[in-house]
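Quick log. Single chain, no ligands specified.
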Amino acid sequence: AEHERKGLVSLFGADDALIAGLVVAREEGMGVEETVRFSTACAWEDALHFEKGIRGRKAVEELLEKVQIKKLE
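-> predicted structure:
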């Protein structure tokens, strides 16, 4: 998955946000591509501010369309 790096402030905690996003996506029954997109958006949102954790579902959903996924062949 690729996304813009513009505005990144801190990667501290982004790994936790990524894993949390994976868990939430799977619990909600998202498909594989949607799960990757959602968990990446969670990590990205967490990296946009110094405080650990995401600022809410809406903040994550605003980033979903910006996450680009390229399938490997």
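The mean pLDDT is 88.
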